[in-house]
Amino acid sequence: MKQTFREFYNQTVLEAPLEDYQTHGNWKKAYGFRDKRDRMLIQHPRSIEMAKKKFGNTDHIFRFYFVNSAESQFHVELGLKKLEWVRQEIGDSVADAVAQHMDDDTINVIFTNNKGDERRNMSAWIMAHRIGHAMASQRGDGDAFGYKQAHDELIRNFSDIMQHYTQKEFPASEREMTDRGSYYDRKSKEETRKPQLVMLKFFHEVGGFRSAREGNIRDWFEVMNELIAQYLTTGKIKFRPAPARFGSGGLKGFNYSTQEVDEVNELLGTLGRDMEYHIDNALGMFANRILVM
Question: Is the same domain home to 181 and 195?
Answer without folding.
Answer: yes
